[in-house]
């Protein structure tokens, strides 16, 4: 028995004689205390005090708990109560905090939000970096939910001392215990949960709204060029440009780049290839990344181009313009008046906004002052280069359409491979193919099908050139194709067939969508009508792109491993560079089973157990070893300890979520293959239990050795 102090909401106090008093502490959770008592004369007062909001105190630690549930079971003479309590810190849920914070915040500011006006205090036990919530907000929720959000956002842990919350990067100690099967524990049990595994994920960084009128490229002046959008069309002769770029680019020649593939990669990343190619020719360094932004390339030339395009968008769509007045080669004095003028002249998404922040030479050029006479004028150089490719000021989107032109353009791509998530002629999926065709003709479009199906009015047969044909109910479509005429379609079918042309009657669609802009182009008309009707669900003149986007595949995503098991897509409105995004995606993938170990401690009450000194607390790290091959470093996830000395119940420790890397699964596969090729053997006798002397331990000594 253990006497537990009990206090009613009115402040009345008594004690309850309890048995099987079990306190369970779990990482990143509220501790609980469960116990039983008999409703006899000794507990008469306590029995009458069982009600909501009653507080029970653990006399061994002084920690307080509120009764969460009571389950009285009648017997012949009295009732036996089973009581569940939860730590007093759960009173955070009593507070609904309406205030919010957003943007970049310190942990202190978030804790002030959490505890302000409450009975709670906090202690920050480590140096914790600030966290940027972006446009998301913290607050307008119950206190316990805000606590969980804080821990997740700052990637920290916490523990409670009654109404004081302690925050740290990580709680617990290293090398604090060793458990050995049949030595100081009765058994070590393992549970591996394979249902939560994911091996692949796609994600996007900060969202930006790209103006759809990006096709209007201006080459009339350097200033006009700088005011053009980063996805502008300058009307160049593509073949001439690609050939000239292939002949002049040091990187193309050094890396064996397919210029046409590079063109498609840049264009599909939302950047003008004409400007990108011209910019690159102004830089010229075969050892660096495209545009010389990084001192090294990010992977192959095409992935490197995507990374650089994402960087371009993040700078061009920055909220404020911060000119690069100086560089290693020279500088000019900052001019606040010029900066203010440029902020107005070169809005978000313009070439000038990128150049002014990325290249000091462009700042000097637009300011009309030189920071170094030997440095050229990059903007004028781009204008001259693009004009040399036949470029000129463009007043309308490229591709006027006209009956048969859309179909003729699309037909040339029959045979292109099917690549899930792809959107270029090097490989695309069904919605990526549609987006590519529409974007070529100046009609903004992007994946997936559930977006494309709302970019027009639903129509039935007969279908016409340019119609989008869909399979599945609207809102839940799973496939799309392009109508080439009333009888024929083209689609990226599947990995086996690729991009194919076939009769519509061979697989009739469930419905079709006709985009009015595409329909106008097909008819050869002018799509600049001021018709107020819209065939989309929004009237916005922008289309959504992202500062960075990508896909992460775990090593276990290989076909000869576990294959691709997709996690939910990830998005962040604070990430603006590719490396940070890929690190975040890698962190989101759960490419390992949840592995938990549980052990019953035989001689828990002793200070020493078979000469092994153990320090048991949630968060502590140590070692588990048994005769069947377990030999792991683990962390205590949950710990249940019985407070009453003479209980017959056994204390338990759970060690949580051991993460095994690819080597572990390769070893298991090799062992399985070896076992499959072995001849059958007679059953062997079980190996006798190991003893302390049989196993090497780390940082552990026998009691006899410690005592000399």
Describe the protein in words.
One of its GO terms (molecular function) is cysteine-type peptidase activity. Belongs to the peptidase C40 family. Pfam families: NLPC_P60, Prophage_tail. The protein has about 700 residues and is α+β, with helices and mostly antiparallel strands. The chain has 6 domains: about 1-90, Thrombin, subunit H (Beta Barrel); about 95-170, 3-Layer(bab) Sandwich (Phage tail protein beta-alpha-beta fold), CATH 3.55.50.40; about 175-195 and about 590-680; about 200-205 and about 545-575, no CATH class; about 220-390, no CATH class; about 405-525, endopeptidase fold (from Nostoc punctiforme) (Alpha-Beta Complex). A 6-stranded antiparallel barrel has the order 1-2-3-6-5-4. It has a 6-stranded antiparallel beta sheet with strand order 20-25-21-22-23-24. A 3-stranded mixed beta sheet has the order 8-11-10, with helices on one face. Strand 2 (about 15-25) and strand 3 (about 30-40) form a beta hairpin. Helix 8 (about 275-285) crosses helix 13 (about 380-390). The longest helix is centred in the middle third of the chain and has 16 residues, at about 300-315. About 35% of the residues are buried.
